[in-house]
Here is the input.
Amino acid sequence: MKKPHLYFRNPVEGVVTYKPHQRKVGDDEGADEPIEIVPRNYLLMQESFRYSLTNFTTKRNQRETHRNLQLNIPAKVDYIILNFFDYFDSSKYENKYREYFGLSPIRYDEFNTIGYYAISNEEKFQEFIDSINVFINSVNPDDSEDYNRLIRYIKRFDFHSSDDIKKIAEPKDYYILDLFESLELYPQLSAIKSSLIDYCSSNGLNFIQDVSSNRIELLNVPFVTIQEIVDNYDVIHIVNSPFAGIIRPSVFNLPIREYGFAIANGAEDLPIIGIIDTGISSATPLAPLIINDGNEFDITGTSPKIDSANHGTGVSAIAALGKSLYNSSSNQIIADAKLLSIKVLDREEGYISESLVISMIKESHQKYGIKIFVLSLGYCNPLPNNSLVSNYACTLDSLSNELNILIFISVGNFTNFVGHFFDNENKGIYPHQFLKPDFNLRSPSESMNNIGCGAISDNLEPYSAECYSAESSFPASYTRKFNCDRSASYYKSTRFSKHLTKPDLCYFGGDIDNNTLTDNTGLKVLSAEMGQYYSREIGTSYSAPFLANLAAKILKEYPQLAENMQTIKALLVNSAEHPQTGKAFKNLEHFKLQDLIGKGIPDDNLPIYSDENNVTLVLEDSIKPGHIKTYTLKLPEYLVTLLHGKSVVHIDATLCFSFEPIPHNHLAYCPVHISFGIFKDIALEEKRLNDKGKEENFGLSGARVEDFKVFQGWSEDYYFKAKLLSNCHKMSFGITKNKLLKENNQFKIAIHSKLHKLLPAHLQDDYNILHKFSLVITVKEMSHKGAVSNRLYNELILINNLEVIAELEAELEN
Here is the structure.
């Protein structure tokens, strides 16, 4: 019987300053890594410095030569790029590089092994150059005291030149100028940026200034003008021209000559999903669900209710109707959501203004209160291995945190099937194709506050078994993977949170057929083309709206959860499971299945309903970095009387939170760590004498994990300084009768938080505040010989302070 989820209202039992747990003697985990990585052969390092210095000097002189002094730009800033042997510990050495070398940090890339620095003091920078020269000319650098040894952590260096800035070799219709920003150099950079804006205005250039993402978009500007801007305005990190569009693996005809259904509840008050796509055709049964007032939310100059590219309509049908489009035998389908068409493209590919997309998300949220968006249009090119989160994804992360929204973003598709899968040489290549960087996900699906969506092969029809992958639940052959390259020389497992995965989730996207038969492949997708009605298509463009549909169903049942959309994310993730893939992915070197499947495939019902034996609890609260807090969780006594030989209860628990990202800092992008655990029922703080008569911490704050762990330790214990953090943690474990008896059926839920250890000092006050989090815990009574007690739901309510989130419709109880 379907039952509503429950708010967990057991009171907070205490909040204290968090003390990191004690380490075992000899445990050097997290020990500070040295600033100097001494190479075995100084000759190689001297040669590298010699080449770097020559190259740097030449490029710097060339930039001076190309400057147009008649532009009267009020300030000038040169930049040096330092490539380190290992990550740069900014918390210790930024001030030293500033003090000794006159270098001000601007951004860090590739796990902070590459740093961009502004030359802010020429006199001190000369000391850097002098040290480099002394090192180069030393017979044995170890014997010389005439140079600053801080340079020995540097592998090589370069000047940030016009060629580094301009990443395009030929004219384009659309350019994005990503700008540097720095509080330390704000007067200079602000003056240069203002001068650049004046230049664009006085020359009549068609441009958009996006203040929130610190970028400028230029439309139909002569290439020679782009070159002049690049050569003179020292505020530009990179100029690019990203191409976006519909990445279709394939399209197949489907001989169905009528839609065959109508919307049964078009007048009902439903959650609204914003579809950022090519429009939604109102000449389809979706018309009653489209809420656009006239031609609002259209940047193409056409109409948001016309879909000439025949993409947004199919996406919208899945978002609004979900599996009902495939499972319903009635000609009246009950919709789960209404639709707002946010039209950003009128053809299959083109240039999309990121700033206008951001603006329309804000406006639609403000006007209609939309909480769920689908973005299936992304850039065509894959992200480079181990790249910093793109500016587009960073802006969406900031927007999601600010507006409390959730955007479902497709990771994109690899399209070259014929050349990649079906020639004789590559026959049977699945899943080895995923090792190639060509299969990396595309921007902005690496966004962390939102949900990146991959695809499995299932097409909701019996033909799924004939797909190219071995099973319909396997990753689809075209889906894209996390751009984490574990074979990189600077990669270390300690640099990544074990919970950091992309995509976040996977769902149905269909797949090609083993024999490439067009009648046995792909998803049945609603078509906007007159007379066609449906087409067969495949892609992550459709897994994203399927997942958004699940989110809409949750909001439909529990409107209160819109107060924190990270709860919706946690419910979806907590219900997800990995498919059983056997040995299919075992032999892929430097690869993990989670790189393709994320946290897994969500269940259709578990995110939405509990039942008598499967109970979902929702804890929404906040915590300040540097603190730990606890709550008591009680489990029913009847569980220890069950006849199970193994686990009597299974726990799935997921914690999610959103954050304001740190742009241009790879490792500290997520600046806050929040972790959880379910432990022994002990005090937060307690001191005892150990065997040697020495006082030690034995409470949850300060003790060894072994002293309070029952099942697992913390979801993640952030100890290593140089680490990419995750804002989505999940744990699963079983509880035996012996454990229940030993702990008297009572446990502590603990939450603790820290700031990132590489968070710049001037930003720490901004993040040393309360951060909201959502913890979803599903308690499941395990069956014994197929039997369950049907008591868990009511018994949990009796012994804990739990509150029904929303009363379900009466028919659910019948």
In short: The mean pLDDT is 89. The two ends are 8 Å apart (CA to CA). The chain has four domains: 6-31+610-813, 42-164, 174-243, 251-597.
